[in-house]
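Shipment paperwork, digital attachment
Item: protein structure file
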Amino acid sequence: MKTDIEIARSVRMKPIADIARQMGIDPEDLEMYGKYKAKVPLKYIDRRRKNDSRLILVTAISPTPAGEGKTTVSIGLSQALNRIGKRSCVVLREPSLGPVFGIKGGATGGGFSQVLPMEEINLHFTGDFAAIEKAHNLLAALIDNNLQSKTRSLGLDPRTIAWKRVMDMNDRAVRDMVIGLGGMTGGVPRETGFDITAASEVMAILCLASGPADLKRRLGNIFVGFTYDKKPIYARDLHAEGAMAALLKDAIKPNLVQTIEGTPALIHGGPFANIAQGTNTVLATEMSLSLTDYTVTEAGFGCDLGAEKFLDIKCRAAGLAPNAVVLVATVRALKYHGGQPLAELKTPNVEALERGIENLQKHIENVGLFNLTPVVAINRFVTDSDEELQFIKDYCTMRGVACAVANVWGEGGAGTEELARLVVEATESGRTDFRPLYPLDESVEKKVETVARGIYGADGVEYTPKAKQALKRIADLGLTGLAVCIAKTQKSLSDNPALLGRPRGFTITVRDIEIAAGAGFLVPITGEIMRMPGLPEVPAAEAIDIDDEGNISGLF
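Attachment content:
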């Protein structure tokens, strides 16, 4: 059996100009990054077409080490829609180097449902992450420069500065540090640290901005900290937004690539869903809606994270509404939720599946909370038994939920046509009437409780003293009307990663709340979630290599 990278290399890619023509883009307008990837100017966004095209959100059950394949299903579904005569584009996030070199691997799909060129997309791609990193760290440098200024100091209290630096790598050693050492020329000593670039508010802003002017406005709204006399300071007070936006001049443009079958793919932005909003840029989504009839996009991790944030944050900010929701599940993952050990998941076990399917049921209910009905996609593995697959299909049928088995890895679009037809039927039924989960004018506590009780199934929410202080600070700043982007483990519906399946009888603990005023949301931090991951005991980086001809191996 070929590996993903071997399959990718066996495909003869089309020139990116040909992919552009498929979407109605003049190749002369492309900003080329080699032969197979390009940036597309924002003039191809026509918001008048927003309601004429169909938006399909792909989400999933709670992730497990067994894998769910949400990105792979998104790619396979878009390929299948084109195979059955629908003009479709898949819109995805860019991979972060942290997971690529860590434990999760790349984010370009797999098998015969991949986006290409996979090595370049998984590594530096078109440099968007580097630009975001530089813009973020420019603001950090301006803050520290102002701290030691004798003539232009804003009087910032270093103890209140909320802005860390970022880097696109998993590195636990830099989570917390003291900077400014070295005497008078080394700056003002203070505590700070690093987050991963995917958790940067600049990343969130890029993904929610409606254009260059909105980007600059949002950058200016970034909350920095307080002066000694309790006056709030924003990035605009440091005159940072212009230079930051200049660094993002190219990064704001969506990136055009292709799938293994030559289906157009826009890949743009890359926030994590457990610590940020977990969706690609509004601009890439709107561009696809402007140029095709079916836009397939994914939201990170499970429905409790990526989908909730896609619907409550992105759709609300951009005036979008999904026409269909695909909920991805695997036999393996559901058995894991039912208590079957990871090493035994290849062994058929309907009893474990019956216990674990409660996780699927909860996510079906979660989609319903937004007045939407999902289509369940069973991402097939070769070890799945017919009995196990039929059990899931019967379970969905009994609950009035459409369900299809999709062989996206082994057959690509051809193995996903049944799912594509169910999705088309769902989009044409007119049964959706999307509504966000909560109004923005509710209190922060009420918004968090609505998500915790409704989406997670919690009995309630508790706040640490630090989180209560943050609530008061948010109220004093007049920011209670922002959305909430809850940072929570992806491994469980609760904030305890050990609680699998459908946990009951738990409370969510909010230990702090960060302000992302530029992005337009607050970040309640729950459990032990961190914004700078660490590498595993055996990092994926140890298996990645390059030969004398420039061929990369070990990526997955």
